[in-house]
Write a structure and sequence with these properties.
single chain, 508 residues, alpha+beta, five-stranded antiparallel β-sheet, 16% strand
């Protein structure tokens, strides 16, 4: 009696090409998604590939291994080992469709193979048993995918909710009526709401008056799909305090129309408070500095006249009574004259220091011309010490020409004063960098110990005795203040006995 194996032998022996053609035609007329993922191949190549696949399948029916090979195919799918395709590309529903097409073509050839009802029923039962099992496997695959997808969805939702609820940002959703329809835990905590008190609260009613226009403008932007970004915002809490926020709105659309607006903001109230306090302290410090500078200016200016009078009378006393009094009196007069002279120099230096930050409009200056005037003023000291000043072409900068001239004069005068055994050699160069000009004033003088590289810029700090190197110790402090007045910084590099290089920058 004919059975499934003999039917398979019949198909292999006489009907394989026609069977494969019928499969191809029916597949072509059926929309199976996975076929759209196959590489683009010609109709001829598709028929050849299908012929090979159907031959393997029918032979597996003939040798009784069809069910085993179907199970192996499902295993490969579950382990994502199907050549050329991802597990997610092939859906079990695709396999069910292919089984149905194959079963239909099988049935059409079964009627040609036998006219005996008993044989047909017997073979049909064997086919039904095979397709029932493979389709049951497909259904099980569908169930497994559904269960896996649900688990992934639940996990994803849990992660999102955890992130949503535990972020430090205030997140809330505004419905089409402008009312709060959803908030996270941080929003409720910061705004002081418990339970569901926040539901249907109109956002406009909790926005301070001075932020109303900002709120309406940003909502309008996102609803019209205009570019926007982070901005400062504020909300009034339940107890009436104000929260200063920073963040942005985004709009969700449905059918091309605004559906709801989502706000994500961080609380910057504490930061704004600190910034305000800092601004107030900065203003107070600026005011205090201005008062101190004004006091120093007035004090040093007003002290000039009485000190000049004291100095004049002490010198008059010295000229009239020198050698007419005893030795101690002569020494006391000498101390008085020397002290008044040093006091006059200190007051003059203090007056010069206080004048540095006195407001004067900046202007463009050619440093070559400024330096010409400085060298002209220092020509006597340069000549007396056989000093040589070498300079390269200097740039045009923006600043106070008087102060910049004083800066160069102090540095050059120091290089001459603190000379070594050799004649002073002074080099002045500049280099234009991004946003600033860098200057170097280099000499071959006595040098400075490294530990004093910061101390020398402090007012009235001296490294040498006044007897050996006269001065008040304020020159470099004035240089530092002038450079800072022009948005730059000054520093020194030196080797004791080898010379010194002063570097400073001027903001462009």
């Amino acid at each position: 009696m004919k059975d499934l194996k003999s039917f398979a032998g019949y198909l292999i022996g006489t009907q394989l090409d026609k069977f494969s053609e019928d499969m191809h035609e029916l597949m072509r007329r059926t929309d199976i998604p996975v076929l759209g993922l196959l590489p683009t191949i010609s109709e001829k190549e598709m028929r050849q590939k299908l012929l090979v696949v159907q031959e393997k399948f029918i032979k597996s029916l003939e040798d009784g291994t069809a069910l085993e090979k179907a199970q192996e195919s499902r295993r490969l799918w579950q382990e994502d080992k199907i050549p050329g395709l991802s597990r997610h590309d092939i859906k079990p529903s695709d396999l069910v469709l292919l089984y149905a097409i194959q079963k239909k073509v099988m049935w059409s050839y079964l009627k040609k193979y036998s006219q005996d009802p008993d044989e047909i029923v017997s073979i049909l039962n064997e086919l039904e048993d095979y397709y029932t099992q493979v389709q049951d496997g497909g259904v099980k695959m569908l169930f497994d995918i559904h269960r896996e997808t649900e688990a992934q969805l639940r996990e994803s939702e849990e992660r999102y909710r955890d992130l949503f609820e535990n972020t430090n940002d205030l997140i809330f959703i505004i419905d089409q009526k402008g009312a709060v329809s959803f908030v996270n835990r941080t929003w409720k905590k910061e705004m002081g709401y418990v339970s569901d008190e926040w539901i249907d609260v109109l956002v406009e009613s909790i926005v301070p008056e001075d932020y109303q226009s900002v709120y309406m403008e940003e909502i309008d932007k996102v609803q019209r799909k205009l570019p926007t970004g982070d901005f400062e915002f504020a909300l009034v809490t339940k107890n009436g305090t104000r929260l200063i926020l920073e963040g942005n709105f985004s709009c969700k659309f449905k059918d091309g129309k605004p559906d709801y607006v989502r706000g994500i903001f961080r609380n910057i109230t504490a930061r704004k408070k600190i910034e305000k306090e800092l601004q107030e302290k900065t203003k107070e410090l600026e005011r205090s500095n201005q008062e101190l500078e004004q006091f120093a200016y007035v004090a040093s200016h007003d002290l000039q006249e009485p000190l000049r009078m004291v100095n004049s009378y002490v010198q008059l006393l010295a000229s009239r009574y020198k050698d007419k009094l005893d030795k101690d009196a002569n020494e006391f007069i000498h101390f008085a004259v020397d002290g008044s002279n040093r006091m006059r120099n200190l007051i003059s230096s203090l007056l010069a220091y206080s004048r540095v930050n006195r407001v004067k409009a900046f202007d463009w200056m050619d440093l070559n011309k400024v330096l010409d005037e400085v060298l002209s003023d220092l020509s006597g000291a340069i000549s007396e010490n056989n000093a040589r000043v070498i300079r390269k072409d200097l740039p045009v900068i923006y600043g106070d020409a008087v102060l910049i001239g004083q800066l160069f004069q102090n540095l050059i005068a120091n290089a001459i004063k603190f000379r070594g055994e050799e004649a002073p050699m002074i080099s002045i160069t500049s280099q234009r960098n991004k946003g600033e000009d860098l200057f170097e004033v280099k000499d071959n003088g006595i040098g400075i110990k490294e530990e004093y590289s910061e101390k020398i810029f402090t007012i009235f700090q001296r490294l040498h005795s006044a007897e050996k190197y006269p001065g008040t110790g304020i020159g470099l402090a004035i240089c530092k203040k002038i450079v800072e007045r022009h948005g730059g910084k000054i520093w020194v590099k030196s080797r004791l006995g080898k010379g010194t290089s002063f570097y400073f920058t001027i903001r462009q």
